[in-house]
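tool=predict chain=A
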Amino acid sequence: MTDSDALARRLDRLQAGVRPDYDDDVLDRLVVLGRAGVGIGVAILADGVLFVGAVGKPVPFAEAVRDAAIDAIAHIDFTAEDRQSLLDGFVQAETRLQELMEERRELVERYPPDTTIDDIPVQDSFEYFGAFREPSTIDLRQVKVHYQGHAPMEVAHVRLHRSRIAAWWPLKAQGVEVNYSARPPEDDST
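tool=predict ok
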């Protein structure tokens, strides 16, 4: 390996380590747990809307999108094969994401913690550094959506881009009610 190759690989590693604006290690861990099936209850404030639910896996979200697509395309004249191909694509994309996450986890486990950039073969480097990238979205299930001036709405699944999150906090148990009112609190100072 030449010096320029080693330098290029080190620069690539630096770039791979750049963290996004929505850097939050605790939320990262909640997303990983949720994708593994451990749904921890959270409340998330994003774009002025309060979302209360449990962090979940991405595949059920894709299945919900597929089910909505079934209803939406029911009246369109597709062949049965074309319809099935279109609908299966939603779940296949999310299933592939799960497989990719598993492959990356296995790749990371292959190298000891003290591994340097020079110890990783070039063909593994992209996947190796990709394994440390935080998910850009968070999937919630069993969600109550609170929007100012409207009654709370219950939905099965919500996907939020993490860059839109202004605040979040954990809930101690599933089904925690959040009191959210469109009216400001009464002023007791008069």
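The chain has a mean pLDDT of 75. The radius of gyration is 21 Å.
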